[in-house]
Write a structure and sequence with these properties.
The chain has 176 residues and is mainly alpha-helical. The protein has six helices and two strands, in the order ααββαααα. 23% of the residues are buried.
Amino acid sequence: MAPPILMAALQSTFINFCSCMFATFFTEKVPPTIAILIFTFLSTPPNYLWQEYLERVFPGYTTEKLDLDDGGKGINVGKRLHKRNTMKKVVLDQTLGAVVNVMAFLGGVRLLRGVSLEESLKVVKEQTWPLMMAGYKLWPAVSLINFTLVPVERRTLVGSLVGLGWGVYLALRASD
């Protein structure tokens, strides 16, 4: 079986392909599908590692132990949401993570389409903040739900499914 990071990249690339097809179907704009797919495949592994890093540094759940006179081993009796760590993950993901991803998307897709570095940087400068503002209407809620209600092994799937609609929006933005 393929490593989870590769599976995440393939899954995200396929979902973005679907987003591009939906964008084409619903509008007259043709998104730069190949550039978006290459960008998605290349950008998913760093994002996967980012999510692993956040979970490792700020564990979302702590294990409660029942105290026994057994040399300190105890018995695990349940997991408890670590609210402070969860909020740290959401804030970091929606600030540092989001701005890096938005800028990389805006510039990267254009560079892959053959747009000059100068023009790509101009688009990054002009469109990063509006795209961030648009994303803040959706992604903080998705992150909070993911970090609190969704098991770690299902978070990529939830994000990808929400990303299907977001991907249509991005595909339309990238075709401008």
